[in-house]
Design goal:
Elements lengths: L1 H6 L15 H7 L3 H19 L16 H14 L2 H20 L5 H7 L18 H12 L4 H16 L3 H5 L6 E2 L4 E4 L8 E4 L2 H14 L23 H15 L6 H14 L4 H8 L4 H5 L6 H8 L9
Antiparallel strand pairs: 1-2, 2-3
Length: about 325
């Protein structure tokens, strides 16, 4: 049914345009690497919907031809296929591309205003991801400690920092040696989401893992966590987001830890701080969330935790 709906939308593929005047390219270039990857995937999904069976992508679709009947149909089809939060993220990308098309003079003010006049989708999405148990994090670190090569030291620092700071992958790979301050065990996140900087702090175990890695790495300026080539040769350069994912999958397999995503470290970090009684405003600042409500959505505490919390209340019945 969704395919039949999208096939009714007849859009012409864009003639080749310089990326400086292509609305999708202009929009994507304004984002950080992590957000760019996410939003480009969203735009690619929409582009394929609109041009099936040709299946265009974000940079080959003529977004300026979209009108309200197209965007309303897109919203309808997305609602059938994705959770509300995902739909709203994809609609955000769509609105921003149309905004750039308007700024570039490719769409009139009236057509732009009506095309983006879409209601956000309401509804709660199920909590994503999972919590990592302390025993699982310990198993991952022990696997690294049993690896006596520089790779073992590097991977231990990687896991310790991600679990102890709640950094996003894009923030982690962007860290340089100058961002680490030994006097207060802090990391300066220069390239946070929305290009906002913040300072995070490492627990003692993460500091120890990082210091062991820095002995191997040396004090050359550049990326804090680096690739390690065959033979233990350390290349002072930046790792990719995908490399982090690959490392974690390998360590999980070797340590017999159930599958998890890098972002699950972030979910675990936030949940553990909230469970320890840290106020949500402080946690949101550490996590780099502009809105504490976003931080609350990461709370994966169990029903048992909530049941025990209620038992702290006193109801004076029969007294």
């Amino acid at each position: 049914m969704a395919r039949e709906t999208t096939r009714q939308i007849d859009l012409v593929l864009a003639a080749p345009k310089p990326l400086t005047v292509h609305p999708a390219a202009v929009y994507l270039s304004s984002l950080t690497s992590g957000s760019r990857r996410t939003m480009e995937k969203s735009l690619n999904v929409i582009a394929r919907m609109l041009t099936a069976p040709v299946e265009s992508d974000a940079l080959s679709l003529d977004w300026s031809k979209l009108r309200y009947q197209h965007t309303a149909a897109i919203r309808s089809v997305l609602m059938e296929q994705y959770a509300p939060a995902t739909v709203n993220r994809m609609l955000c990308a769509l609105r921003r591309v149309l905004q750039e098309a308007h700024h570039l003079g490719l769409i009139t003010t009236d057509d732009y205003a009506t095309a983006i006049n879409l209601k956000s989708v309401r509804g709660d999405s199920p909590l994503r991801g999972r919590l990592l148990k302390p025993s699982e994090i310990a198993a991952l670190l022990n696997d690294c400690k049993n690896d006596l090569t520089p790779i073992g030291k590097r991977d231990a620092a990687l896991i310790a920092i991600l679990s102890g700071s709640g950094l996003r992958r894009s923030e982690f790979v962007a860290l340089d040696t100058v961002d680490y301050k030994t006097e207060d065990s802090s990391l300066l996140v220069r390239k946070g989401k929305g290009r906002k900087a913040r300072t995070v702090y490492l627990p003692s175990g993460a500091v120890a893992a990082l210091e062991d890695w820095l002995v191997e790495r040396g004090n050359a300026p550049g990326a804090l966590i680096c690739p390690v080539r065959r033979g233990g040769h350390i290349k002072i350069g930046r790792m990719t987001d995908q490399a982090v994912m690959t490392i974690l999958r390998k360590r999980a397999s070797c340590a017999h830890v159930a599958a998890f995503s890098p972002h699950d470290f972030r979910r675990t970090f936030i949940t553990n701080l909230l469970a320890a009684g840290v106020d949500v405003l402080t946690v949101s600042r550490l996590a780099g969330h502009a809105d504490p409500a976003t931080t609350a959505k990461y709370d994966l505490r169990s029903e048992e935790f909530k049941r025990q919390a209620v038992q702290l209340l006193h109801v004076p019945y029969g007294e």
